[in-house]
Amino acid sequence: MTLVIQSQCIDVKDGICTTSCPVDCIYEGERMYYIHPTECIECGMCESICPVDAIRYDDEMEPEEAVFAQINADAFRDESGEIDEPGGWSKKDPQRKDPPQLAAFARRVPQDT
């Protein structure tokens, strides 16, 4: 099982999940956050704290969200197609480039609070 960030995070990027991760395996992208598929220890802390309910184990995902397992993995692919191992996220790190398939999802307009 792998934890995956799904569509609910797109253009929301609350980021509280990054503070709960004990191994810093959640990385910031341009439009959403991504969980590194091999750095994650599957503790579930991020899933329990996500305010938009965007994080699921891959075997618990709804069919329409299943593409996000691939999107999360693709956020870490290098030019050769291999998953790179950045070694833990820091707020000082630059944003990761979103995988091309994320462009198919409409942009969300921020809601007034």
TrEMBL record:
<keyword id="KW-0249">Electron transport</keyword>
<dbReference type="GO" id="GO:0051539">
    <property type="term" value="F:4 iron, 4 sulfur cluster binding"/>
</dbReference>
<dbReference type="GO" id="GO:0046872">
    <property type="term" value="F:metal ion binding"/>
</dbReference>
<dbReference type="InterPro" id="IPR017900">
    <property type="entry name" value="4Fe4S_Fe_S_CS"/>
</dbReference>
<feature type="region of interest" description="Disordered">
    <location>
        <begin position="73"/>
        <end position="113"/>
    </location>
</feature>
<protein>
    <recommendedName>
        <fullName>Ferredoxin</fullName>
    </recommendedName>
</protein>
<feature type="domain" description="4Fe-4S ferredoxin-type">
    <location>
        <begin position="31"/>
        <end position="60"/>
    </location>
</feature>
<dbReference type="InterPro" id="IPR050294">
    <property type="entry name" value="RnfB_subfamily"/>
</dbReference>
<dbReference type="InterPro" id="IPR017896">
    <property type="entry name" value="4Fe4S_Fe-S-bd"/>
</dbReference>
<dbReference type="InterPro" id="IPR000813">
    <property type="entry name" value="7Fe_ferredoxin"/>
</dbReference>
<keyword id="KW-0411">Iron-sulfur</keyword>
<keyword id="KW-0479">Metal-binding</keyword>
<dbReference type="GO" id="GO:0009055">
    <property type="term" value="F:electron transfer activity"/>
</dbReference>
<keyword id="KW-0408">Iron</keyword>
<keyword id="KW-0004">4Fe-4S</keyword>
<dbReference type="Pfam" id="PF00037">
    <property type="entry name" value="Fer4"/>
</dbReference>
<keyword id="KW-0813">Transport</keyword>
<feature type="compositionally biased region" description="Basic and acidic residues">
    <location>
        <begin position="90"/>
        <end position="99"/>
    </location>
</feature>
<comment type="function">
    <text>Ferredoxins are iron-sulfur proteins that transfer electrons in a wide variety of metabolic reactions.</text>
</comment>
